[in-house]
Amino acid sequence: MAEFLTASSGTWLTRRAVHHLDHQEDEAGDSNLTIEPFEASDPVVERICESLGVAPEQVSGGARFWWESNLMEGRQNDDNAAILLNVADTQNCRKGFLLRDKGYIEKQPVISTYAFADDGIVTITTRYDTNVGVERCWFVTESVRIRVSSVQFLDGVSMTTYCTEFRCPSDSQLEELSAKARQRFPVTTQPLMTTN
After folding, report:
1. Which of 49, 89, 155, 173 could crosslink 56 through cysteines, CB 3.0-4.6 Å?
2. Which residues are registered as beta bridge partners of 184?
3. 29, exposed or middle or buried, with CB in 10 Å at 0-12, 13-18, 19+?
4. Residues 31, 69 contacting (CB under 8 angstroms)
5. What is the pLDDT of residue 191?
């Protein structure tokens, strides 16, 4: 999970399609997802562990998540944010628990389980009071991720979501690309042709 979070670091453009099975309604939209991994020494670890009754020394790191409909620099909204902590299985590093300060479905502290398959797909299962959320995520390339999820109540699945995510270049990466382009294709000023 630590490697997965590091590979997910940065800002992503999320193209999302949602299907509500209970009233046969679809919706689609774009949003931005920003992921910032952190080490186990981060001060937030103790607070979240205390709220969920977990020993902080079990945590090996985590990440902060922000999602916004329109990304505005310096305007991340903590109402659209979550923090998760990684507690890896000591016997099998492909499995473990994610401690979240708030869940995606119900806004309360929650513990999820995760497991990586041989092909690199991670399955995250979160059990809430009245429903179960299952999310699968994998990388197609370093800059493209896929996420699919479902929400299941006692009477069956009520919602499914499919997301394709594209990594957004950082400002420094854009500057670097721009500098390379200027070197390859220098701009020369030509005198304007005039006619009499």
Report:
1. 49
2. none
3. exposed
4. yes
5. 57
Question: Which backbone phi and psi does 147 adopt, to 5 degrees?
Answer: -130, 130
Quote the CA–CA distance of 196 and 188 in Å, as a whole number.
25
Q: Which domain holds residue 112?
A: 2-183
Q: What pLDDT score was predicted for residue 74?
A: 53
Residue in the block written with tokens 């299985």: 89
Residues of the chain where predicted confidence (pLDDT) is lower than 70: 70-79, 103-107, 188-196
Cα gap 26→161, rounded to integer Å: 10
What are 77-88's pLDDT values in tens digits?
666 789 999 999
Read off the CATH number of the domain in which 126 is found: 2.40.128.20
In a domain, 195, yes or no: no
pTM recorded for the entire structure:
0.82
